[in-house]
């Protein structure tokens, strides 16, 4: 099978595509996969490191209001469509897969104009503008959550596949999991709470965490692994040292974790943003989460994700606005020390998880390619 993958702008669009590519190559080493992105997006750095062939096109975000930027968008879109047509003509894919971001628009649209089968992927509960536009052209819209169907009335067909990234956390070798536990100095006899908010961290969450660290240091129920983000690490570490908490066995502070799937094997509760990829990872393992949705994303989609998780009994939510150390500590401690409630949330999360998402997605592609 010849496949073009496209998706960019954020890791939430790129990593699921790479997870799918890994599964396909493991299942069918003869599969030919090309990744199409942009020169300026994260994909231009991440994808080549994965070893996948990578080509670029020009693209600009869709505009919600008419302005001079709208003109610039259409100029770039026209150029992107021409570049997309050239790539499609040269590579001759059996199917094109879009995992999110505006780079998908020229590729998916032109694929349909050329009679090439196409699939788009919606990772969030609330679809973004690009996918709402593309759903009328794609042969299949692959969903992480069945509830998303109501927001895509013009979609031609659906497949609830889950997020392929979920499959990555289920395939961590035991030695990798053991190595990260040793590196971090985790106590196997204590529950582990993981707080992580992306590579750049989040200042309001950092403030709340610092405010609760004395309480964390004085309890014996759990150990806290706090991933600060590179930008904030030095300041937070200095504050911890100044407060005499550096030797606390209950507090482990690191700037970044390169092998998050391995660390999640030891996690009893996660605290972080409610992006689609984060949700896919923790659900696959049945890890309950306290979601603090980012208020800075388009259409407030992270809050929609978090609300959905709370309704399903698989998570809790605290809004960033008004977040305090007391509220954060009480929520974490209240769940970790209530074994019955923690177990119920673990079961709810596991029920929603789709650890076989990559396999299901690939089967969807195979069925589509066979369809006349």
Automatic annotation (TrEMBL):
Pfam families: Glyco_tran_28_C, Glyco_transf_28. It is an enzyme of class 2 (transferase). It catalyses: di-trans,octa-cis-undecaprenyl diphospho-N-acetyl-alpha-D-muramoyl-L-alanyl-D-glutamyl-meso-2,6-diaminopimeloyl-D-alanyl-D-alanine + UDP-N-acetyl-alpha-D-glucosamine = di-trans,octa-cis-undecaprenyl diphospho-[N-acetyl-alpha-D-glucosaminyl-(1->4)]-N-acetyl-alpha-D-muramoyl-L-alanyl-D-glutamyl-meso-2,6-diaminopimeloyl-D-alanyl-D-alanine + UDP + H(+). NCBIfam families: murG (TIGR01133). It is a peripheral membrane protein. It comes from the Bacteria. Residues 3-140 form the Glycosyltransferase family 28 N-terminal domain. CDD domains: GT28_MurG. Its main location: membrane. The keyword Phosphoprotein does not apply. The lineage of its organism: Bacteria, Bacillati, Bacillota, Bacilli, Bacillales. Its EC number is 2.4.1.227. This is UDP-N-acetylglucosamine--N-acetylmuramyl-(pentapeptide) pyrophosphoryl-undecaprenol N-acetylglucosamine transferase. Transmembrane segments: none annotated.
